[in-house]
């Protein structure tokens, strides 16, 4: 195996839970959230416990910062249509789980939901999305602000500081060119590679801690099995997508063929009907011409043939 770096999803599942590697996560989160993050500890939650059904598609890690805030990082490889709903569910669970019985609502912990997805979620071409809700006036368009007392008591600058924040990284939308320090992290998330010139926060720690060559023999074997599972999953998913497209294309072809045959049949029937009508018309004209030759007046010929005055006079 070449001297490359470990995939982030495997690293976050196995290596980054080690306190010695907190600097990697802290650097990544600091670049994403635009302020310095220090991790106090990793927690277990109903929202991030592994189950038999998890297999290797989802990776969750829950961190508590030194400020008492909660950061949930989720990595999802395979498509999931209700992933937006799962983001909401995961953050909502944390809000209630970490409010002790008898505690006042003001003790609710701030939650950051960080979601890294390797599939096309929603309709959008960017690769970094964030959601930080505000209360906006329906008539004046002003943003609802906390009182000075609330700012002091809850240590907030705006009402949105209380509510969960969501960050969505659509890794596959990244176009390879790292223009910012955060882009350097996105580049790593997509390519499992760290360029020598990268200098984002935590990237130097990642460069050393996440080398494949640093893995023990047991870890190397586990990592290779993980990569094989990822390749197998990708192959299965690709096969399913191909078969679905093929079935749709075949259904479209059958529909076109049926439409062509139906069109031909309708064309034949329409042509036959037009021919009959044309024959009747020509027969009426022949009768009208014969009547005129016999000297009958136009009114009489109109009654006999049901032709118009113009048609008869034009003969």
Outline the structure in words.
The protein is α/β, with parallel strands linked by helices. Strand 2 (58-65) and strand 3 form a beta hairpin. The protein has helices spanning 8-14, 22-33, 83-97, 148-154, 181-191, 203-209, 217-293, 298-305, 309-313; strands at 39-43, 58-65, 70-76, 111-117, 128-131, 165-170.
Write the layout of secondary structure elements.
Blueprint: H1 8-14, H2 22-33, E1 39-43, E2 58-65, E3 70-76, H3 83-97, E4 111-117, E5 128-131, H4 148-154, E6 165-170, H5 181-191, H6 203-209, H7 217-293, H8 298-305, H9 309-313
Parallel strand pairs: 3-4, 4-6
Antiparallel strand pairs: 1-2, 2-3, 5-6
Helix pairs in contact: 2-6, 7-8
What class, by secondary structure content? alpha/beta
Rounded mean pLDDT is 85
End-to-end gap: 94 Å
Unreliable spans are: 50-56
Percent of residues in helices comes to: 40-55%
| Total helical elements | 9
> What is the string of SSEs from the N terminus onward?
HHEEEHEEHEHHHHH
The number of distinct β-strands equals: 6
Strand order of the largest sheet: 1-2-3-4-6-5
Assess the beta-strand content as a share of residues.
5-15%
Largest sheet properties:
6 strands, mixed
State Rg.
Answer: 36 Å
Shape: elongated
């Amino acid at each position: 195996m070449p001297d490359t770096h470990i995939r982030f999803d495997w690293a976050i599942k196995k290596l980054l839970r080690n306190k010695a590697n907190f600097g990697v996560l802290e650097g990544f989160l600091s670049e994403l959230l635009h302020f310095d993050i220090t991790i106090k500890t990793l927690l277990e939650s109903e929202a991030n416990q592994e189950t038999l059904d998890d297999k290797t598609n989802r990776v969750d890690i829950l961190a508590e910062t030194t400020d008492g805030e909660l950061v949930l990082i989720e990595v999802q490889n395979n498509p999931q249509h209700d992933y937006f709903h799962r983001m909401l569910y995961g953050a909502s669970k944390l809000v209630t789980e970490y409010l002790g019985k008898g505690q006042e609502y003001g003790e609710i912990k701030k939650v950051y939901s960080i979601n890294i997805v390797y599939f096309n979620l929603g309709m959008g071409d960017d690769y970094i999305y964030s959601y930080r809700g505000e209360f906006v006036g329906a008539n004046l368009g002003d943003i609802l602000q906390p009182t000075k007392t609330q700012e002091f008591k809850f240590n907030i600058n705006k009402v949105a500081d209380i509510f969960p924040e969501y960050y969505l990284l659509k890794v596959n939308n990244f176009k390879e060119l790292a223009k910012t320090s955060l882009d350097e992290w996105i580049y790593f998330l997509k390519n499992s590679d760290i360029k020598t010139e990268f200098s984002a926060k935590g990237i130097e720690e990642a460069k050393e801690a996440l080398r494949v060559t640093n893995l023990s023999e047991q870890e190397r074997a586990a990592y290779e099995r993980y990569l094989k599972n990822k390749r197998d999953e990708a192959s299965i998913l690709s096969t399913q997508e191909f078969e679905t497209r093929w079935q749709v294309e075949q259904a479209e072809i059958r529909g076109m063929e049926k439409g062509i045959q139906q069109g031909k049949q309708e064309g034949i029937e329409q042509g036959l009907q037009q021919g009959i009508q044309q024959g009747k018309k020509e027969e009426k004209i022949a009768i009208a011409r014969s009547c005129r030759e016999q000297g009958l007046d136009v009114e009489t010929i109109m009654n006999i043939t049901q032709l118009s005055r113009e048609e008869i006079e034009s003969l």
